Amino acid sequence: MTDFSRRLQDEIPALRRYARFLIRDADRADDLVQDSLERAIVKRRLWHKPESLRPWLFALLRNVYLNQVRRQTRRPTEVPLDQVFPQAGRGEAQTSAVMIGQVMAALDGLEPEQREVLVLVAVEGLQYKEAAMVLGLPMGTVMSRLSRGRERLRRTLTGDSSPTTATLRRIK
After folding, report:
1. What would the pLDDT profile of 106-147 be if each residue is shown by its tens digit?
2. Could you tell me if residue 24 is inside a domain?
3. What is the CA radius of gyration of the chain?
4. Residue 84 domain flag
């Protein structure tokens, strides 16, 4: 097994987590990871810096995802069978299931740009510079989106409804 193949294999769990945050469906996320790994192997010659494999793979996965989203807008929406017939009982403890549901709902309530940066930095542990490289954004933009996303997530989870910005008054 080559060094590239071994390192690629080591990154699969992180790629699966990121794909699941993007898609919210485990099966489709696994398909996305597989498509991304296939593209990484084909485009291996474009990877130059040994220390930057994870950001390169995340950027590749994101590009494959965006291409799929663009393609999907031209196709009808598919509804997974488990959403039509939800399972009655699950083995998870109720409190943890409720808490996970609240966190996921709070994440879903974020702007997509904030959610994506939050997942890359807070969940996947990328540095700001690496997240900026994955998203193709300046590092300052990544930092401000992360800050706003964290604050909004905190407010949502704690139930803090105080305004985050000054309210403008209309003066006649």
Report:
1. 888 888 899 899 989 988 889 999 999 999 999 999 999 999
2. yes
3. 19
4. no
